[in-house]
Amino acid sequence: MPAIIAALVSALRIMFMAKMGLMAVKLLAFLGLQFVTHKYAIGPLLSQLTAYATAAGSAGGDFGANLVAWMGVLNFDRAISMVISAYSTRATIMQAKTFLGLSAST
After folding, report:
1. DSSP 104
2. What is the spatial distance between Cα 79 and Cα 65, in angstroms, rounded to a whole number?
3. Nearest CA to 44 among 93, 84, 88, 86?
4. Is the pLDDT of residue 3 over 80?
5. Is the separation of the CB atoms in 84 and 42 below 8 Å?
6. Percentages helix, strand, coil for the chain, rounded to the nearest 5?
7. Among residues 96, 83, 88, which one has the least CA distance to residue 25?
8. How far apart are alpha carbons 38 and 46 in whole angstroms?
9. Share of the chain above pLDDT 70, in %
10. How far apart are CA 89 and CA 51, in angstroms?
11. Which of 10, 20, 86, 93 has its CA 20 to 30 A from that of 36?
12. Which DSSP state fits 58?
């Protein structure tokens, strides 16, 4: 009986460690992609769009201010972040599959 329990505990420990490693890699990849996307894509893109929008309303109208306000209401930055994250995650996974020699067609 103790041998069965020891084998069961050992198997559970191995499964847990395998899953923890995979979850740690996924977490680090997610945090890294979020940081890079926000730092190098979303920030400059939003500042450039804000500059364009405020320049569009500089002729005396309030078009630029309304456009910036609506971009905030519609969560434009979150939408762009999700799209860029999805594309970069897919590209990262495809590169990892190619590097590891797995089929990269899926």
Report:
1. -
2. 20
3. 84
4. yes
5. yes
6. 85, 0, 15
7. 96
8. 10
9. 83
10. 29
11. 20
12. T
> Which residue is associated with the tokens 């309303």?
57
Q: How far is CA 19 from CA 5, 14, 22, 24, 26, in A?
A: 21, 9, 5, 9, 11
Confidence of residue 38 (pLDDT cuts 50, 70, 90): confident
Structural Rg of the chain based on CA atoms: 23
Please choose, from the candidates 37, 74, 68, 36, the residue with its C-alpha nearest in 3D space to the C-alpha of residue 54: 68
Task: Say whether pTM exceeds 0.85.
Answer: no
Q: CA–CA separation, 68 vs 50, rounded Å?
A: 6
- Residue 34: name the closest of 106, 26, 49, 104 by CA: 26
Distance CA 90, CA 51 (A): 31
**What is the rounded CA–CA span in Å between residue 76 and residue 34?**
16
Q: How far apart are CA 33 and CA 40, in angstroms?
A: 10
DSSP reduced 3-state for 77: helix
